[in-house]
Amino acid sequence: MAKSIDYGNLMHDAMRGLIRKVLEGVQSDGLPGEHHFFITFDTMHPDVELADWLSDRYPEEMTVVIQHWFDNLTVTDDGFAITLNFGDNPEPLYIPYDAIRTFVDPSVEFGLRFETQEVEDEDGDDLEEAEEITPDFSAKGDDDTPKDDAPKEAEIVSLDKFRK
Questions:
Q1: b/e map 92-116, b = 16+ CB within 10 Å
Q2: Closest to 147 measured CA to CA, from 52, 48, 34
Q3: 100: helix, coil or strand?
Q4: Which of 15, 63, 70, 115 could be 132's S-S partner, Cβ–Cβ 3.0 to 4.6 Å?
């Protein structure tokens, strides 16, 4: 039996499961109402799949917006695949849940932030990265987003404007 309850990993699994369930709903029914997502992920994660030109342009992290135009959303237990439009070029992506750093739905001011920090042993040596999960409900959305069905270019945005 474990010496203590690992609340950090339990919370990690629960929050990744929440993202999976939300995306499963979008996969089956589309985006409801004004909902849309800003998802920032680690482009260096070993299981992320994206075009070389995107990984060259965003060597550490990238934020994608799932809103007006997306295609081929496929949700699995470990991550999701999606095709987004970058400068009129549809590009397939695969993003494992473990690579996600932030998930924000500004239409309802909901957000999750997964932060990593170094864990040290008693001698001060770095052992591993530990994740801190921080629910972030401070996102603010734009209410004057144009409403049309024409394909839009995928946006890559800084989430700083959503932080207090």
A1: ebbbbbbbbbbbbbbbeebbbbbee
A2: 34
A3: strand
A4: 115
CB of 112 within 8 A of CB of 136?
yes
Q: Rounded to whole angstroms, how far apart are CA atoms 60 and 161?
A: 20
Question: How do 100-105 and 79-86 pair as beta strands?
Answer: unpaired
Cβ neighbors of 13 (< 8 A, separation 6 or more) are none
Beta bridge partners of 104: 38, 111
| Residue 117 pLDDT class (50, 70, 90 cuts) | very low
pLDDT confidence bin for 7, thresholds 50/70/90: confident
Is the separation of the CB atoms in 118 and 131 below 8 Å? no
Report yes or no: 106 and 137 within 8 Å, Cβ to Cβ.
no
- DSSP class of residue 155? P
Residue with tokens 């299981």: 47
Torsion of Cα atoms, 133 then 16 then 129 then 62, to 10°: -90
Determine the residue type at 36.
H
